[in-house]
Specification:
The chain is an all-alpha fold. The protein has a domain at 5-58. 73% of the residues lie in helices and 0% in strands. The protein has four helices and no strands. Helix 1 runs antiparallel to helix 2. It is elongated.
């Protein structure tokens, strides 16, 4: 849960104050204003628990130790993929390590021109 009980107390004080000043001039007997203000304070106090729970849920960040098993599993998968890659050899589809960017650009341009000529 987010925060502490003091957030609830502040919400109760604010609820009491708002209700008290909003109804002070409306009633002829101040007792009704005070009674309604105390009820508003209790409602605000209880409502703040739900707000704190919601904020705690939104701002929750899990601990690092919760992901230890996931990290181990990912590491095992990486090792397995590396073994499979070493067994299969270097079968990458396209490698441009030896060619420079100008040659690649020329090849792409010619491929685009060939595609345009087939469309016309």
């Amino acid at each position: 849960m987010f925060g502490s009980i003091f957030y609830n107390l502040w919400a109760a004080i604010i609820g009491f104050t708002i209700y008290f000043f909003a109804t002070l001039s409306d009633t002829s007997i101040p007792l009704y204003s005070l009674l309604g203000s105390f009820i508003a304070a209790v409602v605000a106090f209880i409502l703040m628990y739900a707000i704190r729970f919601l904020l705690g849920y939104i701002f929750y960040t899990p601990e690092d130790h919760l992901f230890d098993s996931l990290k181990k599993e990912n590491e095992q998968l990486r090792e397995l993929m590396a073994k499979q890659g070493a067994d299969a050899g270097n079968n990458s589809t396209v490698e441009f390590q030896d060619e420079n960017s100008e040659e690649i650009a020329k090849i792409v341009k010619t491929m685009l021109l060939q595609d345009e000529s087939h469309l016309v």
